[in-house]
Design brief:
Helix content is 34%, strand content 21%. It is an alpha/beta fold. It has an eight-stranded mixed beta sheet with strand order 5-2-1-6-10-9-7-8, with helices on both faces. Strands 3-4 form a two-stranded antiparallel sheet. Strand 7, helix 5 and strand 8 form a beta-alpha-beta unit. Helix 1 runs parallel beside helix 3 and helix 1 crosses helix 5. The radius of gyration is 18 Å and the shape is globular.
Amino acid sequence: MNTARDHGRKLPYQRLLIGFNHHVECRSVLGFVAQLAQITEVELAGVFVEDEQLLDLARLPFTTEILRSSHQARTLVSANVERDMRALADSLQRSLRIVAERSRRQFSFRTVRGRLLRELLAQTGAHDLILLRTACDPWWRPASAPTENKGPVVMLEPPPGANGDLAGLARQIAQAMKQQLVEAPAITGAQAILALHPSIIIASAGMFAHDTSGAAIESFVDAAPCPVLLVPDTGPQR
C-alpha cells in the first residue's frame, strides 16, 4: 500500500470526523475508517448526532411510528427515543474505539443534538476530513443490513487550482480498497453516479465554498448512494 509515510510526506489533515445518527445506513462508514486512518495518519473523531427533529416529534402528543420490521404502528415516546439513541451512541463509540486501537490512532467521541451534517460542519476545522453516510432507505422497506457497494471509488473533480492533495488521496484510497478510481466532473448528476454503484465518493469541500446555508452540500450528501468523504481545500498542487 502506498501511504503518505511511504512517500515521505504526511498528508495535511488533522482529524477524520465520522458522523453517526440513528439511521442504520450511517454505520456502514465504519468499514472505511481503518483504511482512511492508515492512509492519512489522523486522529479519529466520532460524532453522534441525536436527531433534533425526531426528538421534537416524539414530544408531540399522540405521535406514532411505523416499525420497519413489522409495519405495525406504536406510540412514539420521547423518553424511549432518547434511551435508544444513548444506547446506540454507546455501541458506536465502542466499535470506533476498537478500530482506533487496531489502527493505533488517537480517538475521541462525542454526542451532540441537532442535524447530522450541520453539526459536523460546525465542528470541522480547516484541516479536518468528514466521513458520513445519510439515510437513503425508505421506511416502508423491510429492515435489512446496510448494503455494501462493490463499485469504484468516485472522485469528483475539484475546482480549478484547488485541493492539490485530493487526487493523491483518492488514488491511495482506491488502491487500499482494491477498486478502480473514477474521476467525474463536479457537475455529474445523481443518476449518473448511482449508475456507477460507487463504494465511496470523494469530494472537495471547496465545491461548496459559496454555499453559506449548507443546503447544497446537504442535498449532495443526501443523494449519494454510499459513504461520502469530504476533503478540505489544501490549495494548489505542490
